[in-house]
Design brief:
The chain is an alpha+beta fold. The chain contains three helices and eight strands, in the order αβββαβαββββ. The strands form two sheets. The chain has a four-stranded antiparallel sheet with strand order 1-2-3-4, with no helix packed on it. It has a four-stranded antiparallel sheet with strand order 5-6-7-8, with no helix packed on it. Strand 5 (108-114) and strand 6 form a beta hairpin. The longest helix has 19 residues, at 2-20. It is elongated.
Length: 166
């Protein structure tokens, strides 16, 4: 009977780790800095990651996020802090019309990173302000039990504001 219990726990843990690894992980790490030194276990870090908007490749997004160390962090069981910051930049001139995918998907989730075993994620969402012809990116945490309220935004102008047709 005890063997079955242990196998069940191992299978549940494997499932949880698999779920935690899900999400868009196309980000590339740009750099890390130690935020809390730990002598015998991995230190807490602030990580800088970058990724391209999947619908506007001329825009690169840079996100800073917490990466907990310690024993739990080393085992992949730590819950990272909800603090995150975002900066978005147009790295090449934007040409052509704004893609329909950008116009039609206000609040579209374009990036997700796990911040705990299964309950918490850091998200990046995209909004479009047609009147001013800008794309707005927002980062926030989503927690299953208690919502995430800390957020950060960055705005990228795609050119001159659109002139309404008369």
């Amino acid at each position: 009977m005890k063997l079955r219990t242990y196998l069940g726990v191992v299978l549940l843990l494997a499932l949880c780790l698999g779920l935690a690894a899900c999400g868009n992980n196309d980000a590339e790490t740009v750099g890390k800095v130690t935020s809390n030194f730990r002598l015998l276990t991995p230190s807490d870090k602030i990580v800088i990651e970058k990724f391209h908007d999947p619908d506007i490749p001329e825009i690169v997004l840079y996100v800073t996020r917490a990466d907990r160390g310690g024993i739990k962090g080393a085992l992949g069981l730590a819950e990272d802090k909800s603090n995150a910051s975002i900066a978005a930049r147009l790295v090449r001139p934007f040409s052509g019309p704004v893609p329909d995918a950008v116009k039609k998907n206000d609040g579209k989730e374009i990036f997700k990173r796990s911040q705990s075993l299964i309950w918490k994620h850091m998200l990046v969402r995209r909004f479009y302000d047609e009147e001013n012809n800008v794309v707005i990116y927002m980062t926030h945490s989503r927690e299953v039990v208690a919502g995430g309220y800390k957020s950060s935004i960055s705005v990228v102008p795609l050119g001159l504001p659109l002139v309404p047709e008369k």
